[in-house]
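Hey, I was hoping to borrow your eyes for a little while. No rush at all, and the record is pasted right below.
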Amino acid sequence: MGYYVLFSGMASPDTMLIKVFSYFPFTSGMIMPLRIGATDIAATEPMISLGVLIATVVFLFMLSLSFYKRSVLTYSSGGIIQKIKTVLKVTT
């Protein structure tokens, strides 16, 4: 999706769509360089975008780590249904 936004923004990089997607975590790596090269922006805007991306990656890493600990590292002697029940009981 960010790829299509990037191509639509090449014609007019000052649109609101480009500004929003330049801060959206997983599209900012494509869209923000377009804004840096094509428009005059403050130096803090790319830093804010990078900070949002790093915070999102760290949050998702911690979330996936907790699910991994509770599901993969859980040993039970029951079948697959029993394991699913145990994981759901521990995670919720």
Observations:
- Helices lie at 2-9, 16-21, 28-38, 44-71, 80-91.
